[in-house]
Design goal:
Blueprint: H1 8-30, E1 35-36, E2 43-45, E3 52-54, E4 56-59, H2 66-69, H3 73-85, E5 90-92, H4 103-107, E6 116-121, H5 128-139, E7 146-152, H6 157-160, H7 162-173, E8 180-184, H8 187-195, E9 201-205, H9 228-239, E10 243-247, H10 258-270, E11 276-280, H11 284-299, E12 303-304
């Protein structure tokens, strides 16, 4: 197959393969150690979960999904497909998002083994297994790659939520979910998540400006302004082999200044603890900009392959 016969996604994969081959050939001929260029579309090992995830993800829940929902189903589908064509295979969902019922149609026809779906359950459903099964039904899939307990704020939440956590374990045994974890909205809850051996995946609020990051108040809408305590938790999580995904990279949409977006994305890409970041998109331009910023930041950080 020649490049002229390739569709857009095949062409991107072909050029990436050609470029990597050129690098390896060049290094071999010169006797130098080969290097590889990292990109937003890389498939990254998500800690010790055994799963892989694209370095950048599409968040479908800006303002509880109202931002994406306002676009309409057709435009939402188009954005999902555009992101996928650029190599974004991780899609972040939740049952409380207005886009929840749209995901099946948005990913219809995409190879399931290439798509990473993370979803979340909030509240304390009485029949939690039925609730998890509903995600599979709504998304029209046999499994959810990562299922999170949504928006924890209390210190000691692992005691209060043990019934839910046990049900997650049962769902994982059934292979309804492939990994389990939590999203936190306070520093006490985040520290509790780090300490708990139950947690496999962490969804963590992080940006260098300290905008909407976790603070000491045990209230979801009372964020802190200091990033250093969060970074300390990231290091502990990483040492335990946890999967770590950064959120609020664009400061909950507050970073309207391009310099702020550049600063935040560069910061996230500089942290070896973070495997992936998720951003809520509402246009193809935002997707393309984020990918370009990630690629530019990573281009300045070449990684040597093992000799």
């Amino acid at each position: 197959m020649t490049p002229s016969h390739l569709n857009r996604r095949q062409f991107l994969e072909w050029t990436a393969l050609a470029a990597s081959t050129l690098v390896l050939t060049s290094c071999s001929s010169t006797g130098t150690k080969p290097t590889t260029r990292r990109t937003a579309a890389d498939q990254i090992a998500l800690g010790n979960t055994g799963l892989r995830i694209s370095r950048i993800g599409f968040g479908t829940g800006s303002n509880s999904g109202q931002v994406q929902h306002a676009l309409g189903q057709q435009e939402f589908n188009r954005l999902i497909r555009h992101a996928y064509d650029q190599g974004v295979t991780y899609f972040d969902c939740a049952q409380s998002y207005r886009t929840f019922d749209w995901m099946a149609d948005a990913i219809k026809g995409l190879p399931r083994e290439r798509v990473f779906i993370q979803s979340k359950i909030g509240g304390k459903p009485e029949k939690i297994l039925e609730n998890i099964d509903r995600h599979r039904s709504v998304f029209k899939t046999d499994y959810i790659d990562s299922m999170l307990i949504h928006c924890m704020v209390k210190d000691g939440w692992t005691d209060e939520w043990k019934r839910i956590m046990d049900a997650f374990d049962e769902a994982k045994d059934k292979k309804w979910i492939l990994s389990k974890g939590v999203s936190c909205h306070s520093l006490p809850a985040l520290r509790n998540a780090t300490t708990s051996p139950w947690t496999q995946v962490h969804l963590v609020r992080v940006n260098p400006q300290g905008k909407h990051v976790d603070g000491m108040d045990e209230t979801w809408n009372k964020p802190g302004s200091q990033i250093s305590p969060v970074l300390e938790e990231l290091r502990k999580m990483h040492a335990k082999g946890r999967g770590i995904i950064g959120m609020k990279i664009i400061g909950n949409g507050d970073f309207t200044n391009p310099e702020d977006r550049e600063k935040s994305i560069r910061f996230a890409m500089s942290l070896p603890e973070i495997h992936s970041i998720v951003i809520g998109f509402k246009s193809t331009a935002e997707i393309d900009e984020a990918i370009q910023r990630v690629n530019s930041a990573l281009a300045e950080q070449p990684v040597k392959l093992a000799a």
